[in-house]
Amino acid sequence: MRSFPLPTAIGWWICLTVAVTDVVLIETLNFSVKADWTLLRSAVLLALLAGFTIWYARRPSTYRLAVCTSAIIYLAIYSIAVVLMSYLFAAADMPLADATFVQADRALGFDWMGWLSWVNDHPGLGMILAYAYQSSMPQVACVLVLLAFTNHHEHLSQFLTLFWLTTVTTITISALLPAIGAYEYFQPARHLYENLAPSGGIAHIDQVLGLRNGTDRIIDLANLNGLVAFPSFHTQLAVITTWAFWRVPVVRYAALGLNGLVIMSTPTQGGHYLVDILAGGSLAVLFILVLQPSVRIALGNSLSLPRPLVRLRDR
């Protein structure tokens, strides 16, 4: 009889730690959290998924479905907690590092305004990059389903570990080195990006400013935006989802091409600097290397698979 599939124990501890930190900061900083009926219905659906997983996990015919639902449950709970943390950390009002990042970009020979203008002058490319940028989270959902139903359960467990490693690290770094993004820093005229749809690079600006100056103390769960600029989390997602898809030959090259476009889209669609992308990509590669078996053994196997999946793998 197969054991109940779960992400790593440390993953659940990280989730709990993030959630407790959120509760403490919400009370300490006098925040309030707003939810609507849509979110409440989603919570009910999540509870039903949890019940389904517990009921069917030990049945061989539905085991892969149980693996998939357990991964979805974990990622849904963890994502809410970690996004809340990013909002609360943004209220720390540390000095903005945009000017430093712009100087670094110039030292690397990257002209953000020039890149914005060039992409805007190629509307077809701009449209492709906009769709690519919006594909990041749907790709995560596809990873969960594909790896679960192709029996790559160890790889799926490692992907979930990569997800919490990258998010926790990214939010911590962004709290210490916050940036509001290139659109606010350069303030380009509207006609310079009229052929683009840079919602990710603009939608967060008012929220970040409100969190930093203390005028916004309500977090609306129905209207959450990505607040992190440095390092780029979209770049990290592009790297780790490509790594996850690589285990399935039929989709590996399509994933590589799509995520190459995601990385290419981050300056114009997300308002990221080049150093954001370089830092995000470097972190993702570093964490992937850390999860390799030889490195895990050197670390005392602290990031190993949960026992149920280890037993399943060894059969």
**Strands across the major sheet, in which order?**
1-2
Q: Which term fits the overall shape?
A: globular
- Helix segment tally: 16
Tell me the fraction of residues in β-strands, as a range.
Answer: under 5%
Main sheet attributes: strand count, strand direction, barrel closure = 2 strands, parallel
Number of strands: 2
Stretches where pLDDT falls below 50 for ≥5 residues?
Answer: 298-315
Topology pattern, helix = H, strand = E:
HEHHHHHHHHHHEHHHHH
Given helix and strand content, the structural type is mainly alpha
Q: What is the alpha-carbon Rg in Å?
A: 20 Å
Average of pLDDT:
82
Helix proportion range: over 70%
Q: How far apart are the first and last residues' alpha carbons, in Å?
A: 12 Å
Structural write-up:
The structure is a single chain. The protein is mainly α. Helices cover 70% and strands 2% of the residues. The protein has 16 helices and 2 strands. It has helices at residues 9-28, 37-56, 63-90, 98-107, 112-120, 123-134, 136-149, 153-176, 182-186, 199-202, 205-213, 233-245, 249-270, 274-290, 293-298, 307-314, and strands at residues 32-34, 218-220. Strands 1-2 form a two-stranded parallel ribbon. It starts with 8 loop residues before the first helix and ends with a helix. The model is unreliable at 298-315 (pLDDT under 50).
